[in-house]
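Consider the following assembly input.
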Amino acid sequence: MTNPSGSRTIMVVGGGISGITAAVEAAEAGFDVVLIEKTPTLGGRVAQMNRYFPKLCHPTCGLEINYQRIKKSKRISVYTMSTVAKVAGKTGGYTVTVKTKPRHVKPNCTACGDCAKVAETEVANPFNYGMNTVKAAYLPHGMAFPMRYVVDPSVAGTPEGEAIKAACTVGAVDLDQTEDSFDLQVGAIVWATGWRPYPAANLTAYRWSDLPNVVTNVEMERLASVDGPTKGKIVRPSDGAAPKTVALIQCAGSRDLNHLGYCSRICCLASMKHAAYVREQYADAQVDVYYIDLRAHDKLESFVQRLKRDPQVAFIKSKPSRIEAGENGNPVVCGENTLTREIYAKPYDLVVLATGMQPSVAEGEMPDLGGVDEYGFIFAEGEDISAGVAAGPLDVSMSVQSATAAACKAIRAVTTAH
Amino acid sequence: MTERKTGVYLCSGCGIGASVDMSKLETIAKTEFKLEPKSHACLCNDDGVGLIKGDIDGGVNQVVVAACSSRVMVDRFAFEPVMTLRADLREKTTWSHPAGDEDTQMLAEDYLRMALASAPKVKAPEPWVDGDYSQRIMVLGGGVTGLTAAAQAAALGHEVLLVERSDRLGGRALEASKRLPHTPPYAQPQDNDIESLLAAVKASPHVSVKMNAVVTRTAGMPGKFAVTFADESIEHVGAIIIATGWRPYDATKLGHLGYGASPKVVTNVQMEGMLKTGSVSAKAVAFIQCAGSRDPDHLPYCSSVCCATSLKQALELIEKDPGTSCYVIYEEMRTPGVAEELYRTAQKAGVIFIKGKVKGVGADLTVTVADELVGQEVPLKGLDLVVLATGMVPNSTNPDAEASDKGPEQLIGDVDPEAPIKVAGYAGEAPADYTKRAQCTPEGGPLLNLQYRQGPHLPVLHDGFADSHYICFPYETRRTGIYTAGPVRRPMDWSEAAEDAQGAVLKAVQAVRSASAGAALHPRVGDLGYPKINLNQCTKCRRCTVECPFGAIDEDEKEYPQVNPTRCRRCGTCMGACPVRTISFDNYSVEFLTSQIKTVKIPDEFSGKPRLLLIACENDAIPALDQAAIKRHTWSAHVRVLPVRCLGSVSLLCISDALSVGYDGVMLMGCKPGDDYQCHFVKGSAMAAERLSKVGETLKSMMLEPERVVQVEASIADSDRLPTVIDDFVAQITKIGFNPFKGF
Amino acid sequence: MSASPTPTGAYDLAFARWVYANVDGGDRMALCMQCGTCSGSCPIGAQMDHGPRKLFMMIRAGLKDQVLASDTIWNCVSCYNCVVRCPRKVPVTYILHDLATVALREGNAAAKASDNARFGSAFWWSAAKYGRTDERLVTAKYYWSFGLGGFIKRGMANQKIAMGMVKTKRMHIGMPHKVKGTGELAKILAKAAEIEARNHG
Ligand SMILES: Cc1cc2nc3c(=O)[nH]c(=O)nc-3n(C[C@H](O)[C@H](O)[C@H](O)COP(=O)(O)OP(=O)(O)OC[C@H]3O[C@@H](n4cnc5c(N)ncnc54)[C@H](O)[C@@H]3O)c2cc1C
């Protein structure tokens, strides 16, 4: 073993709800953890969600508790803007090469916001999937953890960059930071790298790329969030009008051999949630849910039943064949109602595509792993330890369950590898 | 005890110094509290932290940091075992109120006073440690979940007591034919490998097995459970994993699907047995999905695994005899995740899927289906076997044990999963005809027969599963140190149950390790305080024993409350419940709160400045206010925010104290109670609401308007809304007028 | 090729299995999950009596006569929208066309009587005979399939259109166009028939 002192440390790759959980659960059992996250903040995809099904509670609530657990734990070190470039060794003695991107803000940032006051350049806001922009010096969002600003690399070397640097009274802005890489010795690795929304541009028949009022389910989450681009008002992107008719299209990519061969499990339920979002804001709105099979496991069935009781939410058993541009460019959803045989072409103010979850491995940027299936899931019983959606399309409570199990496996690996 | 030496540190960074007069703050510390404060321009930097550390080395044993919100820089200002108190001069002062303003200054001064006044009331807690703790983990149930849990707990170095009710280990897997696919390519049924799991458990020197064992009572607490069995043996364990699995829904209630009329109508469980023994000979088989599940007259939930199980059974039949005709009659095909592969395999193998409702099953096995896709009612004739995909009923009770008379009340699931949606302003009002769905609680007696004041049962959700109500915390339990795993928690298949077992093992390991250190578990992980009760003043009113969300307090023979510290989760609900303030924690108490309330300077009525107290839950309300401040939203500077662990910990005495010292109004701000509660301590905010409902009369008797005291629901995402809520309350109170007790 | 079996009752799978095994693309048809993408994608989905999705279910349901009598199998215009969109990669177009062939081969009366079958056979007659389609002859042959009365009635009704086409040189009068070497063509077609018989026999 190259470094016996590092061999009991557990590395968790990915700081979404799964990675956070794996990290705190392992730390609270008495193990040192390094948590590696690609973006500037922890939280992953759920931080970008408005509410959770079925309780319609806010994801930041659970994240806040978990952040408090991290803050109070002396055992967890967090590396943001970092990815894993290389893994060498085996259980009990891994050497992991971690690559970091420059944040241009040092850890002594107090999040006072003085830098943002002088920044002028606007950059696409990744937190809102690019639906709006932020200043080139920005706090990723109000619940960001770590609570630290980011300076966009585009202003490094410009007078604006210098002004940003000068504005910081604690000297936290460092425009000279560059990409860096370093090695860590760890005994076990938990892959909790999560997912990305399946690219809607691939679903050409659904016209997401050219019809502004066709959005994806993750964009819908941002539209409904108070800290989203519309401050939580669900509107028609083309003109900001209140939508009166909304279509929610299931299996946009999932269960489709041309796209994702598996079922993403959560989309039907996420759409129930979206129906509730719309109905919460608009008493007169009509929501139509298009589906092949409504999938709601265990007690979540009740959530579907709750929405079915709403007379303004309709369920149409049909996978729409295409979306066409209607009047004012508004989307017209076309297809066959399989229960009535009606061929419909129905105009909507807003169409939400329930795009599925695609594992991050499928995106690349990861070292070669054992135990990866054809879709890119690092399946639970394979050689590598995985947690959450990295392991399979799971909802949050299943992800947390899998992450707790992953922490258990990692602990077993570092304690028995000697 | 060593003398208290409190160091006070004031930070002027992040705009604080430009907004408030720091020298006045220093004067307050000096003159009102006789403490020597030190000011710093950026207390969180190495220099500032070094300053504090140096003082600690010099004897300071309590630190008060007046800087940013207590939610940030936690690690920088952590000096354990020295306790740190925080006064928020940044988020809730400077960032949310105008700079250089007289009212902002008063606000800053009061926040400093609150921290300094409360400092003497708390101390770094001494943990409760008492004698021996068991590190042993008991696993109840020897099926796949229990076997996996036992093997894993042993692998982590813990002794395991595996308890099985029957005379053999293996559970339902013993009677099962093949397994659902669990490794790529997920397309075919896989071998039943229960034997290798059994072998692993049997080979482990750390697992002792108790067969034919029925638990008759369980007393004690994490680290110190004493479990008695029917043979009168007693075992001591530190934590318990319940892996009692499931039982099939009683098929005799499925007469409408032909069960009982013909031996050729069988359940999916019987079918597994038949496949295993190879005793099926059928040429045409119908599988009826949702036999009992998703049916409000039977099981309202989806049993999750029946669809895939029917596919697997059909595939096994076809593998044996490719000529077999298999029909799956379904309403929604549910093969989530990669189980979609199995669906496709079954289709390729020629299994026919008919979407529709079964209208009846005749004596000759003719199944009549309203075939929705073809659009006609069809009789399926010539079948020689009908398999009912009956759902799972959780073994959250012991069906063999008598229902305990103390039992039922404790089994009531406290949330109705189908209650009308109530998110702020949901446009679809509850349909008039909504009636609460009947609960489907499994029959039988308690599994562990817990010797808890709050009854012998494990709390269950509305559907009878012993699951957590929290999405983010599926292992949250209301009986600390006792975790459920596998289908007793949620319908799940073998692979998921094995994963779940490992999660539960980790929680059990944490529980035994924390118990012996006297440290709290989630969510106040590591908190060493615990409730101390001064029995001399106790009136035996039992409110603490009844209200504790975790059943941590029992009553002794003399009916005095008796705390079981390792069951406690430190929410303080007992403290809030106690009418005579006899319950306190080393690091949290009624005095800790009231000292803060009373130290605030209340301007007289001629100043035109009202004072309002905002008692805010630190879990959601405080972060929401912080976010409002980050966005530089502002709210009235007449309000003093008092963070609390949970609204459940707020005693009515805090409110009466506030009114008697002259506050004009009190607002309690906390998480959502009731169905879909979001309270982090289950029912703290509900208890607060209940207590508050009784306050109106008292206020009236004091000649005070009941509107002066309100409780509002806040979620963590309410940062845009809360400032208005606060300002509206201030406006309302201003309209009512000043508190007549001011200056009394 | 053996004739398809006739089911004895609802969901007697004899016909479905035969289709899975013998119809072009039939094996993939087993994967149809009834989502409706095909019928919804079809430019004339609304005009079809059942549409492909329902037709596939009817095959499983054992409704052989209705399937073979369906106009769905005749109305496919081979645009392939359904094929590229089908989430289960079912080659809907092939299946429909081959079912049409089956229907004719098995002498299904409705199939034989269908407009498209008549037109198709007229088209084929011209193509096989001359190597080209001659608008006038194809139309005449098609009209003739309705008998003398039908021929006259349809001819009269479409007289104006025909005149217009002649005027704009869309239809010619005189000897039918044909390719060189019709003898070669006949040989090619005979060979093709032989191969087909071998593959499907
Ligand atoms: C529209 C929609 C709505 C949903 N709503 C709900 C809901 O209401 N309730 C529910 O239970 N579930 C819901 N889900 C599912 C939920 O989003 C997932 O269960 C959850 O995000 C899983 O968390 P995770 O940590 O596994 O993955 P992620 O959230 O994706 O986190 C992975 C993290 O890893 C990081 N990462 C990726 N690659 C690397 C790398 N190479 N190195 C370092 N870091 C890396 C990412 O930046 C990210 O922070 C929804 C899903 C969708 C699509």
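The radius of gyration of chain B is 31 Å. Ask yourself how this observation constrains the way the partners meet.
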